[in-house]
Amino acid sequence: MSKKTLVEATINGETVEFLCEPRQSLLETLRDVLELTGSKEGCLTGDCGACTVLVEGRPVCSCLMLGVEAQGKNITTVEGLATNGVLSVLQNKFLEHAALQCGICTPGFLISAKSLLDRNPKPTEHDVRYALAGNLCRCTGYDKIVKAVLDAAAAIRSQGEGKAAAR
Amino acid sequence: MAASTTTGDFKVIGTRPIRPDGVDKVTGRAKFGADYAFPGMLHGKVLRSPHAHAIIKSIKIDKALKLPGVKAIVTSKDLPDAENMLEQSGELTVNPMHLSMNILAHDKVLYDGHAIAAVAATSPHIAEEALRLIEVEYEVLPPVMTVEAATKPGAPILLKDLRNNEEGDKPTNVAQHYQFKRGDVAAGFKAADYVVEREFNTAMVHQGYIEPHNAVGIYNSDGQATIYCSTQGAFDVRSLSAHVLGMPVGKIKVVPAEIGGGFGGKTTIYLEPLSVLLSKKTGAPVKLVMSRAEVLRASGPTPGAKIKVKMGATRDGKLVAAEIWMAYQAGAFPGSPVAAGALCIIAPYTVENFQIDAYDVVVNRPKTASYRAPGTTQAAFASETVIDELAEKCGIDPIDFRIKNAVKEGAPQIMGPPFKRIGFIQTCEAIKNSAHYKSKLTGKFRGRGVASGFWFNAGMQSSAMVNIHTDGTASVVTGSPDIGGSRASMAMIAAEVLGLPVTDVRPITADTDSIGHTDVTAGSRVTFATGMAVYEAAKDAVRQLIERAAKVWEKKPDEVEFRDGILHAKGDGVPPISIKQLAPRFPRTGGPITGRASVNARGVGPGFATTVVDVEVDPDTGKVQILRCTIAQDAGKAIHPSYVEGQMQGGTAQGIGWALNEEYFYDDKGTLRNTGFLDYRIPTCLDLPMIETIIVEEPNPGHPLGVRGVGEVSIVPPVAAVANAIYRAVGVRMTQTPMSPPKLLKAILKHRGATTTQHSAAAD
């Protein structure tokens, strides 16, 4: 076992320092060192997307990245989606549309969907399906997830329009 | 889009409130089994066999034990003898000896991935390193991978003690032969104008839940053990683990964590007794979590099957005879769902003459477990394809053909007793009248297929408590792990009876010490049976509320009425009071109110579904794209329609994966070659269209709210529906799953070759 490395990163807006072994994945570091267990392990091979987090705004399978590679990076996990206890539009739309059953894939889907909507505020159904194709869900058949993301996009757009009108 | 054929007079039931566990699940707070951690916790890993079939000659653990950080290693020597007998546990028939042999191989390994030893260490990485230091000497035996290989004369025998009901004391790989028959099959075929006979082969497939199996075991020095795990049945984990560990049931408490999918695969045990054994040896909590490869190699997939179906119909489309032979791969130990498959294969139809022979066969594959309508999807693939072919020969629309032969109330089931009120024809008619079926499908290499399915649904035992809080709100406590949103339904049922807003009712799933025995979440039974217990428990609470109000008003209970959450005194002008107003008076009228109920639910109402699917086939690659898909399913009363639709959509998606991609791919040594989601390919978002749903609500007369249960039957029709659609698109009848590009392309080329040869023969 090699010695642990001190890593400094920004996670969900907070600067944190942690120790991790060189062989520990970012996922393992998040879950076992930082106790952020919202990111899930479904495969450890980057196939299921349940561990997806944003690294510098891009969706990454945290099981495929080492903890030490988080040095200096800005990372968002599912725990960072709500603001001061208020759910984001996406989180609310997942609830309204019943877009989850067991919920194990939900954190990864929320992160991938956020990444899509940050880049593309007006996605088509195909855009949504393409962006979420790296996240596996076995319960829902994806129908309600896709509808939730499309509806969230519309809601975020109309919020934006509302703000613009208020100005 | 959901369309209901009946509406009830309900205030909460049938609405779509936000699920009570929802916020925890979109914020990452929900605690799944692998999320548990305890001070001083150790991590376990399991050594697994690289051979499909071998005798274990020796296991040496000394080197591994010396690795710094390794705290304990267990092998089958650490397990007590378990009895070779059959016992009912929930929906499973369990042989404790076989269960024990599956947890840790005794003297033989019986499949690639079979557990041999388990290590506990201070980190999962050290435990993994230790596995490589355990030395196992094997005598490798030839693997038996298929039903044919297992049943041919001189086949290697997997289990030396296995005997079946027909061959006396002869060692065998055939665990059981089931036979169901009625009428005169030969006479039936004589009356038929058309007979279709085909053989079908389906690949072994996995439930594919995203969350791997997990367990944390804590064994205390006083002999009490606690297991935290993601399971469909905490009480089953308790009784099965008690068998394997030789512990009394009462010494084990199981705490069901949130569960990340199961679909039947989490109704048995793998890691749970190992976590307790390792904890007992080390004195520390021990957590084990499977890798994805371990899940695929060594949990409980559903059997591959060989099914021969011969069916006959008269010219006007009446089914007159069926002769069916089916054999399922049980895996390493007996207990495939072949009998269920046999009872379901022609269950939607009235066939006066039939004989069904079904065989449970052990092979060197993992012991199969339940998977959504166990055994029935394979069976329906065969029968519903043959029925499609017969409809075509008769020149009758495939849905009309099904309606013509459909079972109705009063028709005998395969086992004899008549069906009560059922909604099969309604599902057929819903599809026939759907926008999808009425639409015209145009374009080359496109086809539309339909198929139907039946599943029994289940009752079994459930307990529930309804506690009225001091502010007049309530909690509902059950023992049913919530796998797809059932807590929402339980809260809604209690809210309906209590006349409370659903947000005033908090549902929880309790551990095995905190609620009465409750059987596994399986068989589509939770909303039906646990829902029945919740309904009765809420009624019990209402009865007590009436007594308390009567006491306050100094009246007799029968002079008090309860309507929509308000208590009224009959007759005179006493102002009515709500539960909230009555609650502060509980202490002086007899103390807290807890409604209780325990049921062994009778009155199960079977489920039917009919599915239509449009496909486009790429004739150059054999790839199938699903263009459109609609399912109609009889739910009885739909408590929370969104989660009913969710079950219909999820089962359909799994059926499509089963049809097109999924298979266990073993090499000739019996090694599983696709042990990850890259190669064991379940459908992604891009593979599927929206899945349209039509909820048929034909009330179940055996349930106070008309509930049937909705979890399973949706998976039954899609495989056959896809096959029938492919036939209409490119003219080939697929008789094997998966209908993956290489297999379909081969069939297309063969078909094209045959057609070309015919043409050139005609030209000569």
Biggest pleated-sheet summary of chain B: 7 strands, mixed
CATH topology of the largest domain in chain A: Ubiquitin-like (UB roll)
Strand content of chain B: 15-25%
The CATH superfamily name of the largest domain in chain A is Beta-grasp domain
The CATH architecture designation of the largest domain in chain A is: Roll
Oligomeric state: heterodimer
* Order of H and E elements of chain A: EEHEEEHHHH
Q: How large, in whole angstroms, is the Cα Rg of chain A? A: 17 Å
The whole-number mean of residue pLDDT values of chain A reads: 96
Q: Enumerate the spans of chain B where pLDDT stays under 50 for 5 or more consecutive residues.
A: 1-7
Secondary structure tally, helices of chain A: 5
Number of helices of chain B: 21
Strand order of the largest sheet of chain A: 2-1-5-3-4
The shape of chain B is globular
- How many structurally independent domains of chain A? 2
Q: What is the end-to-end distance of chain A?
A: 59 Å
Across the major sheet of chain B, the strand order is 3-7-1-14-11-12-13
Please bin the fraction of helical residues of chain B.
25-40%
Give the overall shape of chain A: globular
CATH superfamily of the domain at 460-601 in chain B: Aldehyde oxidase/xanthine dehydrogenase, molybdopterin binding domain
SSE layout:
The complex is a heterodimer of chains A (167) and B (764).
Chain A: E1 5-11, E2 14-20, H1 26-33, E3 52-55, E4 58-61, E5 74-76, H2 89-96, H3 106-119, H4 125-131, H5 143-166
Chain B: H1 22-27, E1 42-48, E2 54-60, H2 62-66, E3 70-75, E4 87-89, E5 92-94, H3 96-103, E6 108-109, E7 115-121, H4 124-131, E8 135-140, H5 147-151, E9 174-182, H6 185-191, E10 194-202, E11 214-219, E12 225-229, H7 234-245, E13 252-256, H8 272-282, E14 286-289, H9 292-298, E15 305-313, E16 319-331, H10 338-344, E17 353-362, H11 376-394, H12 398-405, H13 424-432, H14 435-438, E18 446-455, E19 460-468, E20 474-478, H15 486-498, E21 505-509, H16 526-553, E22 560-563, E23 566-569, E24 577-578, H17 579-582, H18 586-589, E25 593-601, E26 607-617, E27 624-634, H19 641-660, E28 691-696, H20 718-730, H21 741-763
Parallel strand pairs in B: 1-14, 12-13, 16-17, 20-21, 27-28
Antiparallel strand pairs in B: 1-7, 2-6, 2-8, 3-7, 4-5, 9-17, 10-15, 11-12, 11-14, 15-16, 18-26, 19-20, 19-25, 22-23, 23-24, 26-27
Helix pairs in contact in B: 7-8, 10-11, 11-20, 12-13, 15-16, 19-20
